[in-house]
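Quick one - inputs below.
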Amino acid sequence: MERQRITLANQEFLHGGDYNPEQWLDQPDILREDIRMMKKAKVNAVTLGVFSWSVLEPSEGEYQFDWLERIMDRLYENGIRTILATPSGAKPVWMDEKYPEALRVDEWGRRRHHGVRHNHCMTSNAYRRKVREMDSRLAERFGKHPGLLLWHISNELGGACYCPLCQKKFQEYLEEKFQGDIEALNKAWWTTFWSHRYQRFDQIEPPFANGEGSIMGLNLEWKRFTTWNMTDYMKSEIEILRSITPQIPVTANFMKLYPGLDYRVMAKELDVISWDSYPRYHNDYERLYDTCIENAFDHSVMRSMCKERPFLLMESVPGAVNWHEFNKQKRPGMHKLAAVQAVACGSDSVLYFQWRKSRGSFEQHHGAVVDHLGKDDTRIFKEVQETGKLLEILKPAVKSIVKAKAAILFDWDNRWAIEDMKGLSQQKKQYEKTCMDFYRLLARLGVEADLVSREDDLSSYRAVFAPMMYMIEKETAKRLRQYVCRGGQLLATYLTGYVDQDTLCYLGGFPGAGLKELFGIYAEEIDSLYPSDKNRVKFADGSSAEVRDFAEMLRVQDAQILGTYTEDYYAGGAAVTRKSWGENGGSAWYVGARLEDSAMKSLLLQVLEAAGIPICEIPEEVEYHCRENGKYRYHFWMNYGKDKVTISEVKGEDLLTGECVQKEIFVDPMDVRIVRESREQKM
Ligand code: GAL
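Output:
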């Protein structure tokens, strides 16, 4: 049974961000200014303590928390609540000196020196003990502080350690997983290939950069282990906090679609999902809309991990970061668009990294609300202030949620398996991009989609899109079959059902695991196309579409053929099919080739129609979302384009102007509109 999540006690959208007063303790005037300016910018929450260990515990066992209490008090007195981080993201020097085992070992087997951050072994008992000691003291001291809103575990947990402790834990993990049967592991990993058979579990090394990297099952299991071990570490922090402060929810800030950890596994342990968003706005290789819709995809991945609850945007930059290839400033208006986008996608916060720029060190040139200039009349400060005002206006929408009728399967294990598979075209596999393309096409049709894992319950969705589900175990295949038999619309594509959970290929035709019967087809071959190769798929209505990158040759058993190839040795062969299932109206659609947008759009329209999902075409370069609660629907439009657009058939109250909208609204370039519609009014 899933654990009951603790609810975040926010009555308003959180506005604020990472605050590092420990860097300025010797300058009380600056700290006073901070409070004054925070109030002016309508800041109501800050994250404290993310990297404060060397100030909280300057030498082993010498805890100094008074400064933190003074700051938390002062913030609270001024209406600002605290998200309190555990400081385990970076270690003080005394710890690495005394407990060198806590230092991380890289994939070449080299122990790192002291320094930087995120440089620790997640297994080391010494490290875990020191962290727990710190966490318990923080919880004891601040657990009842009226300003404490949320625990923030460490910082952007990530990476992997290859030290002997981790290696041993990996072996134990495998031994347990394969129930002590090394032959079962040899079979699952197909180790007779290249004579890689293991005799004992203690012979198994992680996939070192200069070691074993040729066993797909091992590579995948190492990724799973890394997630498991990181989750185990994170739980050791959470447990101690929960034992002392059971009423305070817990989060950990995720990083975009970080490939190294399966966030869905970690999410189960958290009360609140939060993440850090740093898109490359205004770049020179895509439209602003494309940058933003990718960010919407990321927001939606986070949102889908905490269905029925808002997530938090934990970090974003008010100006420019310092780690992109080109650190371009957010253009005027971008800040508002990005903030509203986060809220529209289901975030209950707009938080920044960082409140004030540090004077020195690694992030001294990273954007902040308050620059080295120290003034509150800057463009960026004013835009942040405007955002604060806007969030106040939006207050009634807090805790409302986004409800999706469609889902896209986007699965971490599958990501890892596809990334690691040798074949097709390494460059063009592009699993993430393919999922995003589905998301974008649906968004253009005004259809909200959740991004779900292959283990998630699909019953609340009327249509499920499952691009490139290369890795499918029997259990998932069974659930997909049930989904269609119960009336669901399921669309899968080329590269479906090639391997099982250990990455062993299915025999007897792809898709395996009983999916051939579901789709009524099997793929006899898959071809990779050079960018200059030309092929097309022709549809019954006379339209045709370009094939890109991959094409499967389908053998049709009992499905309707919707499209056939026009060129090459597979001309005339089936490329797109549909098999209808029973009285419930379910269908299994199969798209055997990567097709250009126009064809995918028309296929999606057919699937959505069969699913009874209403569509509403959204103007070019405009993004739309809807949040709802029992009483209202909040409609959000963001226009990233250069032209003013008209949105028709809108009724309600424009939340930003207070005007009553009867029929249509206009959205100016680089602007937003938010309309509140009463749910009763529709009846
Ligand atoms: C985040 C990190 C912050 C800060 C920020 C800079 O990934 O959590 O501590 O480094 O990046 O953009």
